[in-house]
Design goal:
Elements: H1 8-23, H2 64-69, E1 81-82, E2 88-93, E3 102-103, E4 106-109, E5 114-119, E6 127-130, E7 144-148, E8 153-158, E9 168-173
Parallel strand pairs: 1-4, 2-5, 4-9
Antiparallel strand pairs: 2-3, 5-7, 6-8, 8-9
Domain Blue (type 1) copper: 90-174
Region (Disordered): 23-99
Biased composition (Low complexity): 44-56
Length: 174
């Protein structure tokens, strides 16, 4: 044998190390350096004097606890669906592929509103994790579970069997 003997394990180790180095800068939120403003003074450049923030039609500001809870939720796109003014609201349980989402993931309702979760696929539950105390059993398609929100605040919930797969939700009660 010579000092240059190469076996398969050495090649795989070297290849793995090279792959790790090559992809090290590809993960995480490095950002693009844009702070979200369009001009040097931090405004969005609109002529109405506003800061460019929402008018509330998308549910208004997203509370940080909702954004944190839903950061890895399937179907969550960074906004709360405004359903204020409605006495009853329906959220689908088990939507999307592969059925591990609530639709919509986050809603805003008035105090006293009844929220009904409707199962659209099998093997799901609804369990409050913060802000309220309610829980359903694991049920199949066609089942419904309702809860009336009597207190203002933020309620975080999940599907018991699928929370680690991203089936998470939130209700903001005004």
């Amino acid at each position: 044998m010579t000092e240059f003997d190469i076996d398969r394990r050495k090649v795989l180790k070297a290849g793995g190390a090279a792959l790790m180095i090559a992809t090290a800068g590809c993960s995480g939120d490095g950002g693009d350096g844009d702070d979200g403003s369009d001009s040097e003074d931090g405004s969005d450049g609109s002529s109405d004097g506003s800061d460019g923030s929402s008018d509330g039609s998308d549910g208004g500001d997203v509370p940080s606890e909702v954004d944190d809870h839903l950061s890895n939720a399937n179907g969550y796109e960074g906004s709360v669906e405004d359903m204020t003014g409605q006495d009853s609201v329906t959220i689908e349980n088990g939507v999307n592929e592969p059925d591990y989402a609530f639709g919509p993931a986050a809603v805003r309702v008035d105090k006293g509103a009844e929220v009904t979760w409707e199962w659209v696929s099998a093997g799901h539950s609804v369990v409050a994790t913060d802000g309220a105390d309610f829980s359903s059993d694991i049920k199949n398609s066609g089942f419904t579970f309702s809860h009336t929100f009597e207190e203002s605040g933020v309620v975080l919930y999940e599907c018991g069997p699928h929370s680690t797969l991203g089936q998470l939700g939130a209700v903001v009660v005004e």
